[in-house]
Amino acid sequence: MKKLIILFALALAVQANVFAQKSKKAVKAPAGFEFIPMGTFEYNKETVSTDAFFICNHEVSNKEYRAFLSDLKGRDAEMYSKCLPDSTLWVKLFEYVYNEPYVAHYHNHPAYADYPVCNITYNAALEYCKWLTEKHNANSKNAKGEFRLPSEYEWVMAARGTNSSWIYAWDTPYLRDKKGAFMANFYPLSSENIKRNKETGKPEIATTIGKSGKEQHSVNPQWDGYYITSPVTSYSKNLFGLYNMCGNVAEMVDGGTITKGGSWHCPGYDIRVDVVKSLPIPSPVVGFRVVFVPAVN
Q1: Does residue 120 sit in helix, strand or coil?
Q2: Angle (CA) 117 120 122, round 5°
């Protein structure tokens, strides 16, 4: 296994060098970004290819997005207003759940600084990418370039590389690792994925008495460790060193009509790499991460 990891790392280094040569300069990835090599793979019964690029190893956090808003507020009050998260969606989209504390605190409280930003529009995500590009190109001594949303194919390549048979962003069809720990933040529904009593082996399912007087069973959404979103560097990294490619928040891709990766509110089946979801945007279950493409000089 160690040999395979070393060989994979060497292959990435070679491709990164080729990528740099095309740009005629040594290309150093921005902090927190990982190199994704060019590749050809099968995706939803099609053979597709992507060029090399860099992608952030985590979803954009509340802290990172607040820095963007803070800068925008002093320059463009109208755009600032358009880019603000709509925190009321925590209640509007979950009418029968007590989410009021998230309305007041999720996007502003320090406790949620490293959680993924959500409840923003597709255009707000584009504005963030534009701002990040301008900031990077004005201040960085490294390669200039563009930050943007990934394409659908780029997102898939970043999730599992050319391993077209992988269901998730890891090399097993299971949602738990060998030690029984969850691999992602999702809403566990299937009995094969929920927590089991160590002595009896039976699923630990909460039981309540419904209005009809009959027992009602439900799955505890915290069994994966979190009730809603989790910090952007939660769970294990994938083969490229990326967090939460499956689960946590569904991620916008270029075009703005679909999302990839599923979210904390999705069952395990819907966080598969091949799944495409048309979700309402903005939403408490949708966020984004950004790609960096160096300028060719």
Answers
A1: coil
A2: 115
Q: Which residue has the tokens 């598969």?
A: 272
Q: Which pTM does this prediction carry?
A: 0.83
- The residues facing 218 across adjacent strands are 206
- Sequence-distant (6+) residues with CB within 8 A of 7 are none
Percentage of the chain exceeding pLDDT 90: 69
CB 139 within 8 A of CB 256: no
Residue 76: the pLDDT is: 95
Rounded to an integer, what distance in angstroms lies between the CA atom of residue 267 and that of residue 187? 5
Phi, psi of 22 (to 5 degrees): -65, -35
Supply the DSSP string of 45-87, one letter for each residue: TEEEEE--EEEESSPPBHHHHHHHHHHHHTT-HHHHHHHS--T
Stretches in the chain below the pLDDT threshold 70:
1-26, 190-224, 297
* Pairing verdict, β 53-56 and 291-294: antiparallel
**What does the alpha-carbon distance between residue 226 and residue 222 come to, in Å, rounded to a whole number?**
5
Cα radius of gyration (the chain): 20
**Exposed e or buried b per residue across 20-44, where buried means at least 16 C-beta atoms within 10 angstroms of its C-beta:** beebeeebebbeebbbbbebebeee
Q: What is the rounded distance in angstroms from the CA atom of residue 71 to the CA atom of residue 64?
A: 11
Which tokens in the block code for residue 61?
């956090």
Which pLDDT value is given to residue 95?
83
**239 in Cβ contact with 160 (< 8 Å):** yes
